[in-house]
Design brief:
Blueprint: H1 7-19, H2 36-39, H3 43-61, H4 64-68, H5 78-95, H6 102-125, H7 135-140, H8 144-155
Helix pairs in contact: 3-5, 5-6, 6-8
Organism: Deinococcus aerius
Protein name: DoxX family protein
Transmembrane segments: 45-62, 74-97, 104-124, 136-153
């Protein structure tokens, strides 16, 4: 089922009836759009939102494991850092769900991922403190952080319609 015609397409069709053959939609210029499909989160965005919302909720429901990974020397109490990062994950995950807040959520989540990376390094370096988690798993997740950042970067981009079609999203 194709989306309803835009105002420009309707006007072009009406002009075409009055003065000659109508132009097909592929001849119309691309326009930034009010197309419903562009505003819906893609499956990738929904997955990221669920990941961040779920992690954020866990920071509040079961904060102790998160408290333990806060590196020593941080100028905040471990519980405060846990709750702040949980709130940021919740806000970012929820922000990804709406097109108006998606770009800001992207920036906030990228900043959060940079901010918590030292905790991930601390966990890998002090693996014996986090048993039964295997040391190899703690080290293996470090290179996954840039991949997660890339996914967040892509998820927060504004999608624009081009030539009657939306570009593929994340």
């Amino acid at each position: 089922m194709s989306p309803p015609p835009t105002r420009a397409e309707q006007a072009t069709r009406e002009e075409g009836r009055a003065s000659g053959p109508a132009l097909s939609s592929r001849h119309l210029p691309a326009e930034p759009l009010a197309n419903e499909e562009l505003h819906r989160p893609t499956p990738g965005v929904l997955l990221l939102a669920a990941l961040f919302i779920g992690a954020g909720v866990l920071h509040f429901v079961s904060p102790e494991p998160f408290d333990r990974i806060v590196p020593p020397g941080l100028p905040l109490a471990a519980r405060t850092a846990t709750l702040l990062s949980g709130a940021a994950e919740l806000a970012g995950g929820l922000g990804l769900l709406h097109p108006a807040t998606r770009p800001a959520a992207r920036l906030g989540l990228l900043a959060l991922l940079v901010a918590v990376f030292p905790a991930n390094v601390y966990m890998a370096q002090q693996a014996e403190r986090f048993e039964p988690l295997p040391a190899w798993g703690l080290w293996a997740r470090l290179p996954l952080q840039p991949l997660l950042m890339w996914a967040v970067w892509r998820a927060g981009r504004r999608r624009v319609q081009t030539h009657g079609r939306a570009p593929p999203g994340p």
